[in-house]
Structure formats: structure tokens, C-alpha cells
């Protein structure tokens, strides 16, 4: 199963991307798409299940920015 993760603070953009990524399933393997609105939520979700193939990360996140989150993700989850 392909597992994708969208980190985006704008709800409309996040939900639209998640729906668009769901269409990748087609006739092939199933696709699981999860989303988070903040860096903190993303780290919490990945702490529960870090088995993710690809993360689509917004660079401009409120609070902890996307680039800072990228550094934290590389340290905590180097396989993603």
C-alpha cells in the first residue's frame, strides 16, 4: 500500500491535495493519504505510525515552519 502524508495549514488546499492523491489508486495498489495542519500535528501522527512513503510539506507553516519541520523529520524519521 502506498502511504502519503500532506502537511498543509490551509484546510482547502490540504483537503484538495488529499482527494487528488486518493485518485492515484486507480486499478493498482491502494493509496492511504493522511494530512496534518501543523508541524506539531505532523510529528504526532508520524510518531504513531512513521510508515510513510512520501510527505508533501508546505514550507510556510505557522509556528514551526516547514523547513524546521523538514530538519526534525530527517532526524526522527530518516527512512521517509
Please tell me about this protein's structure.
With 80 residues, the protein is an alpha/beta fold. The protein is 41% helix and 20% strand. The protein contains three helices and three strands, in the order βαβαβα. It has helices at residues 11-22, 39-48, 66-76, and strands at residues 2-7, 31-36, 54-57. It has a three-stranded parallel beta sheet with strand order 2-1-3. β1, α1 and β2 (31-36) form a beta-alpha-beta unit. The radius of gyration is 12 Å and the shape is globular. The two termini are 15 Å apart. The model has no long low-confidence stretch (mean pLDDT 89).
- How large is the share of residues in beta strands? 15-25%
- Helical run tally: 3
Share of residues in helices: 40-55%
Largest sheet: 3 strands, parallel
Residue windows where pLDDT falls under 50 for at least 5 positions: none
Q: How confident is the prediction overall: mean pLDDT?
A: 89
Shape field: globular
The count of strands amounts to 3
Q: Give the spatial strand order of the biggest sheet.
A: 2-1-3
Rg of Cα set: 12 Å
Provide a quick synopsis of the model.
The protein has 80 residues and is of the alpha/beta class. The protein has helices at residues 11-22, 39-48, 66-76, and strands spanning 2-7, 31-36, 54-57.
Short key terms for the protein model shown above:
80 residues, alpha/beta, 3 helices
SSE topology:
Elements: E1 2-7, H1 11-22, E2 31-36, H2 39-48, E3 54-57, H3 66-76
Amino acid at each position: 500500500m502506498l502511504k502519503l502524508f500532506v502537511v498543509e495549514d490551509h484546510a482547502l488546499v490540504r483537503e484538495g491535495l488529499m482527494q487528488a492523491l486518493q485518485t492515484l489508486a486507480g486499478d493498482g495498489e491502494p493509496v492511504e493519504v493522511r494530512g496534518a495542519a501543523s508541524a506539531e500535528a505532523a510529528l504526532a501522527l508520524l510518531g504513531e505510525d512513521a510508515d510513510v512513503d512520501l510527505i508533501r510539506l508546505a514550507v510556510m507553516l505557522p509556528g514551526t515552519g516547514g523547513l524546521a519541520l523538514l530538519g526534525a523529520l530527517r532526524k526522527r524519521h530518516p527512512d521517509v
